[in-house]
Description:
The chain is an alpha+beta fold. It has six helices and three strands; from the N terminus they run H-H-H-H-H-H-E-E-E. Strands 1-2-3 form a three-stranded antiparallel sheet. Strand 1 and strand 2 form a beta hairpin. Helix 2 crosses helix 3. The longest helix is centred in the C-terminal third of the chain and has 26 residues, at 102-127.
Amino acid sequence: KPETAGELYREMxxxxxxxxxxxxxxxxxxxxxGLKVRPPREYTIDxxxxxxxAHKILEMLTNRFRETGERWADVPDGRFDEYLSCSARxxxxxxxxxxxxxxxxxxxxxxxxxxxxAARAIRRQSGQSALQPRxxxxxxxxxxxxxxxLTGKIDRIDTAELDGTLYFEIV
Length: 171
């Protein structure tokens, strides 16, 4: 019907190559120009994705320790590794686009190894200090009297309470 075609295709104009495509395969032309279906884009991980994924794993790991009330250094190695693996799985589930191909899968495994090394370093450091990771990936915004507004994200905030006084370190 002409009305249906008008609704699907909006403007009834096109190029010679579009007309050729129609005569080659009317169905393919209908899918592409009528329904406007596009082939899925092959998603490749870029450096921003790598950083976001690494930060997300550490954020989830920090949240897990905050929820359980455990100190990073006091948890047995096996449980620490379990928490780390669970955090990586959760981060992947939130961004399923990361696992669309083997290349991405290999990149993610490399990121997870590096994050594991960083998490173990944080764990060693926390075992030598009263300061413990408390918050992760905290957004802030500060407006100044001169009109400047500063925004950003703090990677980690470590805290310790000693003699009723709360101490913190921004990492």
